[in-house]
Design goal:
Elements: H1 2-10, H2 16-32, E1 37-43, E2 49-56, E3 59-68, E4 82-84, E5 87-89, H3 93-113, E6 117-124, H4 136-142, E7 149-152
Parallel strand pairs: 3-6, 3-7
Antiparallel strand pairs: 1-2, 2-6, 4-5
Helix pairs in contact: 1-3
Protein name: Acetylornithine deacetylase
GO molecular function: acetylornithine deacetylase activity
Keywords: Hydrolase, Zinc
Amino acid sequence: MLALTRQLVRYRSYTPGVAQSAMDFINGWFGARGLETTRYGGAGSQGELTSLVVRVGSGEPRILLHGHVDVVPGDEGQFEAREERDELYGRGVYDMKGALAAMMYAVEDLRSLGCEATVELLIVPDEENEHGGPNGAEVLIGQGHVGDFLITGEPTDFHIGTQAKGVLDLRVTLR
């Protein structure tokens, strides 16, 4: 898992093009393991980014694992992960390439174990939609990827979150 995290960290995925390259790498990683992926275009300002879904199992409940590849910009050296005192450091290790690597291996293991529940790993190129257009999660929801339970790999310092920030869209008229 550390080797996979290191590979993901090398992607300077703070630009749409490199985020898409990371998505292509992940697609190939699953393909090399015989896991079928479904890709959905339409994210990003020009619809140029694809989101990825990997599914194992087919029963109930339907469990979603969610991750993203985009990171904030950083110094060049931060894109080479380093290990110190049994901890891995690098751009995106904490948010959220380490969790993404763990979920990728979890899906592979669940397939090997013959998971009865439906488990989908939803990977999006963009979490915060900084470049305009719909984000990857919006695209996946529009394609019907909703479940009974969602686990996102966002760092929470081991606190269980039952809700997250939302968006309120309203129109105010002043006279």
